[in-house]
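Is this the right way to post structure tokens for a design question? Let me know if I should format differently. Anyway, here goes:
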């Protein structure tokens, strides 16, 4: 009996370490399955194919309903890497910070710093899958001769390495990391702060707290990250012209040219669709995460 208990202790400790990462990745992947069609429309709007209604009609007419799920394998791979890393590291770092703060709630500034850190970690891990996702989603908007025709996420990663080298997997990683840091600062810090507000100040119940905090989290994640997401998309999908020259030399060049040609609001192209895509994904991620945690408690994990 004592021997069995001793064997269970290391297993319990290992699960405690892995748990935030496993739960984060699972909840992100579930949310992606629901949100993928909206994400597809958002990317096409950013690529200049028209309004949400125009893009949706064109996709249905030309490629059918399956076109809304193009790149799903890359989206799931991205969540399995990016969201696993960012939500797991955020919870681990937050728990350690709360311990250092003698169990008291953390101020918003500390939550924001932890969110920035977790976003950077997640983006570095998930950047290759993110590149594959953007390219697969943008492929149909390119002339037939320029299309890459990736079969799935793993084929995309293999082709990128074979054709462009290993480092090409992190093409656009700069804006990806900055975008992730801004999104996670808005998403993670505002969620924890909103939970405290809804639960402790307003006395809301569990469901109302999760829904309310998720909605606030989704809005701030969208508002903070869209400018960086716009630049990231332009960098990742760019193709060289006939002379081999790319339209932008880097993220800063893209940002400056965009600012000069369209002003600051150009960075918020497609904001309603982006908000509709990001906010529900954030909300669903938190809701699924909450349900996973409840289920684990009910079975004693």
């Amino acid at each position: 009996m004592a021997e069995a208990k001793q064997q269970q202790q290391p297993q319990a400790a290992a699960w405690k370490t892995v748990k935030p990462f496993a739960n984060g990745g699972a909840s992100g992947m579930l949310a992606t399955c629901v949100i993928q069609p909206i994400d597809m429309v958002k990317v096409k709007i950013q690529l200049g194919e028209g309004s949400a209604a125009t893009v949706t009609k064109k996709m249905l007419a030309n490629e059918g309903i399956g076109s809304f799920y193009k790149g799903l394998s890359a989206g799931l791979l991205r969540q399995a890497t990016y969201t696993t890393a960012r939500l797991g590291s955020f919870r681990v770092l937050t728990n350690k910070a709360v311990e250092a703060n003698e169990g008291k709630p953390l101020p918003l500034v500390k939550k924001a710093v932890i969110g920035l850190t977790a976003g950077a970690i997640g983006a570095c891990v998930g950047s290759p899958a993110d590149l594959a996702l953007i390219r697969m989603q943008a492929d149909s908007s390119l002339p037939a001769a320029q299309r890459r025709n990736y079969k799935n996420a793993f084929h995309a990663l293999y082709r990128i390495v074979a054709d462009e080298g290993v480092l090409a997997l992190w093409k656009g990683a700069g804006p990806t990391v900055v975008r992730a840091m801004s999104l996670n600062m808005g998403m993670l810090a505002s969620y924890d702060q909103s939970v405290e507000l809804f639960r402790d100040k307003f006395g809301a119940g569990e469901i109302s707290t999760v829904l309310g905090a998720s909605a606030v989290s989704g809005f701030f994640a969208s508002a903070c990250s869209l400018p960086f997401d716009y630049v990231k998309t332009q960098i990742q999908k760019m193709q060289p012209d006939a002379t081999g020259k790319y339209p932008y030399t880097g993220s800063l060049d893209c940002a400056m040219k965009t600012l000069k040609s369209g002003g600051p609001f150009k960075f918020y192209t497609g904001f309603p669709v982006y908000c509709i895509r990001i906010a529900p994904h954030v909300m669903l991620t938190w809701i699924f995460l909450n349900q996973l945690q409840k289920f684990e408690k009910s079975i004693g994990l």
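Format looks fine. Someone answered above. Worth noting: Residues 18 and 88 are 8 Å apart (CA to CA). The longest helix spans residues 2-46.
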